[in-house]
Amino acid sequence: MNKNVFIVVAALIVIALITFSYKVSQPSKISQVKVTPTATPTPFQKVGKSIVVSLNALNNSKQSGTATVSQLNDSILVTVQLNGMTPDSKQDVSILSGSCSATGAAKYPLTTLFNGASTIVLDVTYADFLKQLPLSVKVFKSENSTTPVSCGQFSK
User: pLDDT tens digit string along 45-87?
Assistant: First the structure.
């Protein structure tokens, strides 16, 4: 009898391991969700005000869109949406001091724009962000490029 119990327990363990291995090897349903640039790609809840600026095409890029800074509790949420990009392309985007025509140093590098969308939470309060104006958002031709293709300005 002990031999039969051992065989049953061993069989159950093998079945459990096979089931677990199968579930781990299957793609997550979360990874199958398609995010579109028009969707709000953030689980964060805005608690206050927002500023939206238009991003205008530069250097004949035909790439335009919007950048939004939204107040969270003790930080800000920055979302960038850009149209006219090549599918599956990645582009650097940053918030810089100054205006689009006279930008200064990079103040806040943002997450790489992928398929026209970038979202990041920055560790700066909304009030402190406003004190730094004017600031501009510049999108560059590709990763590590210095050629701007779009720009918008946050002004006082």
Answer: 445 689 999 999 999 999 999 999 999 988 999 999 999 888 8
Amino acid at 58: L
Residue 8 tokens read as 């049953």
Q: Which domains, ranges and CATH numbers included, belong to the chain?
A: 2-32 (no CATH), 50-154 (2.60.40.200)
Tokens of 79: 């979302």
SS3 assignment, position 140: strand
Q: Which residue has the higher pLDDT, 75 or 16?
A: 75
DSSP for 29-59, written as a single string: TGGGPPP-TTS----PPP-S-EEEEEEEE-T
Q: How far apart are CA 139 and CA 112, in angstroms?
A: 9
Distance (Å, whole) CA 110 – CA 84: 19
70 vs 4: CA distance, rounded Å: 65
Number of other CB atoms surrounding residue 126 within 10 Å: 21
